[in-house]
Amino acid sequence: MREVRIVAAVFLALIAASCWAQYAPAQVAHNPDSAYGITGLQITPDRIYPGDQVSVSFMVAPISGSFSHAIVTTSAPFTTNTVNVHFDQLSSSNPQRISLAMDITNDTKAGTYPLYISVSDDKNPAKIAATISIEINAPAQTSLLTASASPEKPVIAGSEIPVSIAITNTGAIDARDVTVALADSSSTFIPLGTDRKYVGTVKAGGSVTVPFTLGVDASAAPGYKALTAKVDYTLDNLQQPQIQQQLGLTIESTPSLVVTSDQTTNADGSVALAVTVANAGDTAVRGLYATVASRDYRVVGTASKFIGVLNLDDSSTVTFNLVQIAATGAQNFSGGARPFQAGAQNFSGGARAADNRTAASSVNLHLSFKDPLNQEHTIDQVIQVGGATGAAAARTALNRQNGGFKFLGIDWTIWVGAIVVLAVGYFAYRKYKAGREKKK
Q1: pLDDT tens track for 96-145
Q2: Based on CB atoms within 10 Å of each CB, which residue in 18, 210, 231, 380 is the most buried?
Q3: In a shared domain, residues 264 and 398
Q4: Number of structural domains, the chain?
Q5: How many CB atoms are closer than 10 A to CB 343?
Q6: Rounded to whole angstroms, what are the CA distances from 355 to 398, 399, 406, 414, 434?
Q7: 286 and 325 housed in the same domain
Q8: CA distance 124 to 70
Q9: Domain residue limits at 387
Q10: Is residue 426 classed as helix, strand or coil in its secondary structure?
Q11: How far apart, in whole angstroms, are the C-alpha atoms of residue 33 and residue 47?
Q12: Does residue 276 share a domain with residue 173?
């Protein structure tokens, strides 16, 4: 009879143990030699990292029967907290819930750690009833996401610019519920439409581009201006600290110089060329140089004048003294190694050179300067100089061809022949008229 009771008790214990195992989660390992079991396990947060505070809750009760003066002890290698809970009575029909708060030390390495649940009572010494597996993950990267800004056209004061904000996930965990907001405390950049956009999920190692449109303050000075991107996201359903990243955009300068000129012909035939440069842009310029060069004129003195700083709406005038290059000089300048030929061809070649030089009687003006961003700018302009004087010289040269002289474009021999014909005709007419009068 005694043997029957032992077999029945073992059978009931196995059935009870199987029932406990059915309702116990996978991270709970029961000790088959213990008279106690664990159910109703709850662990928060879902993912645990070093430095977290973890809450563990479970139900404990004997597999069968009841025991007095039960002591439940918990311990784990990743925490210094050891908890002892006393119960006057524990029975299989009345499980008791135990809740623990454990601090995970910051130096805990990632891995799976055991949480031991030991129970002792008035009949049984302390024995491990179950082991709960606690998974501690690698530390979350607070700077998991990075942002960068790329304007799609030059950033000019007073304009609207489309800007692409790239969100890159540099970590090994997907970032979810990502939102991006743009802010500028100086109001240089004003988001148009919306200043916050929902991105969703940015996969580990991936990147997502978010388009924004910004209005640029019309009074903004050229240079680097800060633009802040605020990124919110979650990891493993846990809200992470907001990332604020300074992006910044460079407002480009739009310098604009207007050039006017005036020229005066001196008594010695030289030309005083006055060049006025006015700043009609949106920013001051510095290191301004004005340089002239010409194939038709020789510069007396320096060909490069330093103006320096030219502020907004300011102007400055510099004067260059020019002397026209002689026709022979022009021929040598354009013809190079080919020498002049003697005789009539000398005048013909000189005439052609003078004509070419007159048609291109000009001075090339070159301006160089820097904007506030230290970027180099240049402006080139052609100024017509002394056109009337050059044209007269060309006409005079063209009237001398083949060693002769032309008047009103007609060779002198034709003029002489015409005069002779007129004289002969005049005297013939007078003789004819005198003869008629004698006959009368």
Answers
A1: 999 988 888 888 888 899 999 999 999 889 999 999 999 888 776 655 88
A2: 231
A3: yes
A4: 4
A5: 9
A6: 8, 12, 17, 25, 54
A7: yes
A8: 9
A9: 257-404
A10: helix
A11: 31
A12: no
